[in-house]
Amino acid sequence: MSEMNNMTAAESAATKAAVMNQVPGPDVEGQSPLHHADFAGLAKRGMQEGGIHLRELALLGHLTLRCDSSNHEQVACVAAILGVSLPLTPLTSAEKGAYSIRWMSPDEWLILVPGLEAFSIESQFRDAMPGHYSLVNSSGGSTVLMLSGDNAVELLKKSTTVDWHLSEFPVGKVVSTLFAKSTATIRRTGDQCFELVIRRSFADYIWLWIQDASLEYGLVIKA
Amino acid sequence: MLHIYCPHCAEYREEEEFHCAGQAHIARPLDPEACSDEEWGEYLFFRKNPRGLHHELWVHAAGCRKFFNLTRDTQSYEIKEVYMIGEQPSVVAGSVQQTTASGAKS
Ligand SMILES: [Zn+2]
């Protein structure tokens, strides 16, 4: 593409200045956007059977990568760092172990990693990634909900306009869409199991929405 | 609600995921300093408002956040065609071609 893609190693290394570890030390407790809801307590005290199961995957590392999918060096570099290749087909995802990548747009991917590994992976990108790209740690801006159970699809049907039939929405497919009018990136991880990446500032609203929407099915909180 | 094909996501989504960004194919004058007030005003403020075929710029705001072009009949709301930025419409006013709303131009 442009000459911006031909940064020298020294120029690439200079971009490391933008990276810092966002996770505070062990003396500071990390609190997810749904900390106040006390999922751990609700899991013990609340309903133990129901059609909707909800769990928060709190404090993961969220990395937004933008690069050129036709740049083979960049694509190979991502695979080398994460051990899994960028999903280049629209609306697909890939995962290996604790690392997962979602296609967000033709030049954008959302990578989720364990929270404590985010800084290390960011640093590896700064060291190794060639050419013009952007990697932003957006961990603090969103959180992840796992929605499962026999009525998970019914709840999604109430909340979105997406076709959730398995023939249209197979396991591994990912869409960015509106969930109860707030933005969400939803991935199917099993026949009845879905992962929602939601905005931090909408987390409480979506928590209230899910409680209301699952009244008729029964809501089981998992810690 | 319109059912709109996003050529980047390669599937149909509901209108609520999209925003219309107005008339398509508005070229910015290459040398703004050389424009008369009238030319600059035309570029900046004046838009078509046809009864019939209209070429519009849309963005998949809640999805992939990419822009694309869309040809729509403002009378029937029928979407005639969806095509990428940089491409020219194949359905234009006066053309007899009657494609249905599809991204499958191929
Ligand atoms: Zn799209």
Automatic annotation (TrEMBL), chain A:
The protein's name in its UniProt record: Sarcosine oxidase subunit gamma family protein
Species the sequence originates in: Marinomonas algarum
Pfam families: SoxG
InterPro entries reported in the protein's UniProt record: SoxG (IPR007375), TrmE/GcvT-like (IPR027266)
From TrEMBL, chain B:
One Pfam family of this chain: SoxD
Any one biological process term the GO annotation gives: tetrahydrofolate metabolic process
InterPro entries per UniProt: SoxD, SoxD_sf
Upper classification of the organism: Bacteria, Pseudomonadati, Pseudomonadota, Gammaproteobacteria, Oceanospirillales
Organism listed in the record: Marinomonas algarum
Protein's UniProt name: Sarcosine oxidase subunit delta
GO molecular function: sarcosine oxidase activity
